[in-house]
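re the bet — no i am not wrong, look at it urself. input seq straight from the record:
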Amino acid sequence: MREALWSELLKARRSRLPWLTALAFTLVTLVCGLFMFILADPARARALGLLGDKAQLSGAAADWPGYLALLAQAVAVGGLLVYSMIAIWLFGREFSDHTAKDLLALPTSRTAIVAAKFTLAAGWALLLAAATAAGGMLLGALLALPGWSPQAATAGVVKILAAAALSAALTTPLALAASIGRGYLAAVGVLFVLAFAAQIIAALGFGAWFPYSVPGLYAGITGPGHDPPGPISILLVLTAGALGAAATLAWWRNADHDR
């Protein structure tokens, strides 16, 4: 396991993807900060026209609780896409780069290989979420947002990290799709279908029963007037993640890799 994880870390370090994902989350933090900057002054929002209108449509309040809630929503929805791309890359690259057979020829079990990839994906996702929370705290301080308290900050950061964990758990079926599809294309198609279905099902009011809608609902994307998803919804997310991981491991252990 240690050697497999070290190998995955080396692959990630030599790739541009860590920098691209960090850039994506940095932009998310800056956009949320821009919304707070606009919402803090309604006259400024009107002067900025369409951008100000979009900021107001976000429904966020220009204070610390509202800002951290907006960050959690961005991590839940945008993070699902970014985290899924990480999982797809970790598993799909072995087939796109024609290294899968070489990897399986090493004196390392397939279980360790898959576990190392999932461990790296989880750590990567939570590191991005933690960096977003830290950057958001710094930006919020620079904007001098009202409503600061240790309790509000702690609750906001916990929600950001929890939303990230829920989104990261749902990436395991995408790893399975990348493995079965032996590359990126099929998995990216599955990701688009799931992301579209999550929006439609949530809009119809059944999002609490569809795992891919749950992270956004948990982060409060529907607004303060709606109840967050309950324990059953969280259990559905964890179950989907566990089944995806188990199915991916089973595929790597039993599939014919000679083709």
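see?? The chain has twelve helices and no strands. told u. also The chain has a mean pLDDT of 85. so pay up
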